[in-house]
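Reminder to self: keep the SMILES exactly as supplied, no canonicalising. Ligand is zinc ion.
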Amino acid sequence: MLYGIEVSNISVYNNVKEQLSIIDVAQHYGIECERSRFNSGSGRMVCCPFHDDRNPSMKLYEEKNGSGGNFHCFGCGEHGDAIDLVSKLFNLAPLQSAEKLTQDFGLTVFGVQKQSKPSIKKRIERHGYVFQENRAYKLLADYCDYLKQCRSDYAPKSHLEEINPLFLKSLDLEKYQYYKDIFIDGSKDERQGFIKEFDSVLSRIEKTLNAEKPKRHNELIEAI
Ligand SMILES: [Zn+2]
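Structure tokens returned for the bound complex:
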């Protein structure tokens, strides 16, 4: 998901690449791309950042048909497109690289969106999904933090001590962490399925957290 809009990764990559030139990308991340005697035709020779390269042995191939271009190093054999370059430079997964490029170059439009703008109804629906998912994730994340806190604050110090109900509650932490993970690496169906099925659980969590907030706030004030 990029900006809450679900498009296939491939179209995201293509869209990002279409808007960039490999030379601009290389230059932006510190690869010296000044025109020099090494340059020829549409390519540009640069020093390769992936091996100890004193004489430029990497060639940047500018693509004229809008797919951004490629690089190839004749010294160490590294090659790829702008997204691969960023992935290798910053040790990122391809989608993270696409996101980095999007942010660093202020790109805004994405392939699927650009070609066929969805109807307003679809966009509102989509926005609704994103909103629901963000809310669910935030509630689950906050609730996990709360349970973690309960577990450490109310752990019984000996077997003679009566168990605090908040400590008992905190024993559910792993279950809620599992729920939270659905919003990190689950599919859209799983996320939506959870929201439908566990709506009452989410409302209960919201109530608990809202009731806890002023208490925690007061404790903080007292601690100061
Ligand atoms: Zn190299």
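Points to follow up:
The chain has ten helices and four strands.
The two ends are 42 Å apart (CA to CA).
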